[in-house]
Amino acid sequence: MHNDTGISLFDSKGALLPLEIIEPQLDKPELKERFEAVRIAHQAVMEADADVAACNDAIKDGMNELAAAEGYLREHYPAPTYMDLWREMKATRASGE
């Protein structure tokens, strides 16, 4: 079922219009109820978008910290080469461990 009420709820930027602008167009109580439901849902979406943005920032910060830790480990503890492992094995055998 399609109801074409001709009521604009959002401005050209996608922001929900204030109730003062929309209320004169809401001549039926059911339209006021529907608008209130849309307003509540829109507010929930806006809050969820803010939460997602905050989570994305936290993930980005965590990834930067991991990259810094990896850089530190690579700089201060380079991966052993085959020759390093061979020398360590040879030294361990020579010491009798």
Compact summary:
The chain has 97 residues and is mainly α. The protein is built from three helices and no strands.
Give the topology.
Elements: H1 19-22, H2 29-76, H3 82-95
Structure description:
By secondary structure, the chain is an all-alpha fold. The protein has one domain (19-95). Helix content is 68%, strand content 0%. The chain has helices spanning 19-22, 29-76, 82-95. The chain is rod-shaped. The protein starts with 18 loop residues before the first helix and ends with a helix.
Helix and strand sequence: HHH
Output the structural class: mainly alpha
Mean pLDDT over the residues: 86
Name the poorly predicted regions.
none
Compute the number of structural domains.
1
Indicate the percent of residues in helices. Answer: 55-70%
List its salient traits.
0% strand; 97 residues; mainly alpha; rod-shaped
